[in-house]
Amino acid sequence: MFNCPHCEKPGISPLRKAILSPGLIATCKSCCGTSGLRYSSWLTAMLPGSFLMIAAAFMESDPVVWSLNGIGLILMIIIPFIFAPLHKEDWWNLYALYSYDFFLPAKPVRPIRP
What we know:
Order of helices and strands: EEHEEHHEH
Largest sheet: 3 strands, antiparallel
Low-confidence stretches: none
Helix content: 40-55%
Radius of gyration: 20 Å
Number of strands: 5
Strand order of the largest sheet: 3-4-5
Distance between the termini: 63 Å
Oligomer: single chain
Shape: elongated
Number of helices: 4
């Protein structure tokens, strides 16, 4: 179990941490706090595996292509799992960030009558 950034107790499962990305959140089992990954740390952790997979596209030998793709996939799972830190998230900030109606007013606006 990974430590929650809210309560500092183990409450986030390894499977949930492994599938986290900037748009997904994890809920702590101890305090029900939400946490997630920042885009910059997630992207930095994804780069080594991505470079290997891109390099595999330019290789001609099938065993080399399969090896580079396999190692790249493993790196894209393991590096964020180990090195990307969890940060506190707030539901309203996530809703406002990823919602299409972010620019709509909270209350309906009545038209002004002459």
